[in-house]
């Protein structure tokens, strides 16, 4: 199967947060949360940086919403799986709405969603052939999002640490449900997310 692009969620954060220092941006891009935490603890987040990072997070949520909407209409999923996807889509809509409120509180303009056709292209939907393919894509997106949100925490002002942590928790829960549905083994090592 063609490698599906789950890293796009993390890449969005890096692209939107270009005011981050080079070490932090490289850590986010490479998924190295430890380096980001070390750098992040030494810097105070600026409101403009919060706006950029929060808007990148909104873009992640737009992508998640679109992915579940596209999957629900794909005809590849069993009805019970569609219902789980609809529940997860609702979670992402709640995340998006909370993030939009935060951006507006800071005086910013929330980023708009792309078109469905753009998400279809970006997610390589044409490569999906069956339910397992859709679930693998969703698992990659959710795992990438959990790791991205954990990496964001040190880049945000303290006011948004709990929000990023809660978002990461939801994404990790989604990933666990999807991994179980795919029959993935339980990881034998600790610290499954955030590396």
Oligomeric state as shown: single chain
- The H/E string reads HHHHHHHH
CATH class: Mainly Alpha
Using only C-alpha atoms, the radius of gyration works out to: 16 Å
Helix content: 55-70%
Q: Give the biggest sheet.
A: none
- Regions with pLDDT < 50 over 5+ consecutive residues? 1-44
Distance between the termini: 25 Å
Describe the structure.
- The protein has 8 helices and no strands.
- It is mostly helical.
- It has one domain (8-181): Up-down Bundle (Ferritin), CATH 1.20.1260.
- The longest helix is centred in the middle third of the chain and has 27 residues, at 79-105.
- It starts with 7 loop residues before the first helix and ends in a 14-residue tail after the last helix.
- Residues 1-44 have low confidence and may be disordered.
Quick overview:
The chain is an all-alpha fold and 195 residues long.
List keywords for this structure.
195 residues; mainly alpha; Ferritin; 8 helices; globular
Helix and strand arrangement:
Blueprint: H1 8-16, H2 22-30, H3 33-41, H4 47-72, H5 79-105, H6 116-122, H7 131-152, H8 161-181
